[in-house]
Design a protein that fits this description.
single chain; 228 residues; alpha+beta; Gyrase A, domain 2; Cyclophilin; 2 domains; four-stranded antiparallel β-sheet; 13 strands; 28% strand
């Protein structure tokens, strides 16, 4: 549950669910996010213009000319939280090609973990991941929690350009780059699957907070001729 509610500037409310990063706490964040978002969509709350979830925090921005911190806090404290948003708990399978052309950091990971590329992939692929949040760039999922034996810090020097579709790992998380972007994650492969579709106005994001994600390996030929 929420540990603390406080002001964040003049027109935002900061909800703190705790300091740990784990699935249980994040599900609480997601449930509050979904419940508030539904009320906003149904126009049962006025003045809220943005709701932003993270691993263990929720930020609610509002229009100060319509409402205020006291009113928003009252809504949060009295919120009937729906814990059954089934559409947010889908299981999604993502293809990944880990050929040397796409797996840019296996040498670094092997040096850090003392494991071979094959051992790293076995540990990575034999796992179901939980989507904690999306962000940094549109639709990018932050997936946890990777096997402790392959956890690794970020690159000492981030890349100026990480290719779209790259799958990276750092510390306890994995992610998928939805656009070409700067980044310092350890890249282990690339997916041809479209994770974010800006042309799909109704459902642009494939992986949402609360989803479960698993990866399966494909060949370079399958990657090149992938057709969704």
């Amino acid at each position: 549950m929420i540990k603390n509610i406080s002001n964040l500037g003049d027109a935002a409310v900061y909800c703190d669910f705790g300091s740990e990063v784990n699935e249980k706490i994040n599900l609480n964040v997601i449930n509050y996010f979904n419940s508030l978002s539904k009320l906003v969509e149904e126009r049962k709350i006025n003045g809220i213009n943005n709701i932003t979830p993270s691993y263990n925090k929720l930020i609610i921005s509002f229009d100060l000319s319509v409402t205020n911190y006291t009113e928003i806090k009252k809504i949060i404290l009295n919120l009937n939280v729906n814990k059954d948003f089934k559409n947010n708990y889908k299981k999604i399978e993502i293809p990944i090609c880990c050929d040397d052309e796409f797996g840019l950091d296996f040498d670094r990971l092997s040096n850090k973990t003392k494991l071979s590329k094959e051992e790293i992939l076995e540990l990575y692929l034999n796992k179901e991941y939980f989507c904690y949040m999306t962000g940094f760039i549109a639709g990018m999922p932050f997936l946890g929690d990777i096997n402790k034996d392959i956890r690794c810090d970020r690159l000492e020097t981030p890349r100026v350009k990480v290719p779209k579709g790259s799958v990276g790992i750092t510390e306890q998380f994995s992610n998928i780059y939805t656009f070409e972007s700067p980044g310092g994650w350890n890249v282990i492969g690339n997916t041809p699957k479209k994770i974010f579709d800006q042309l799909n106005l109704e459902e642009p994001v494939l992986i949402k907070p609360g989803n479960k994600v698993s990866f399966y390996q494909i060949s370079k030929e399958e990657f090149l001729y992938w057709n969704e």
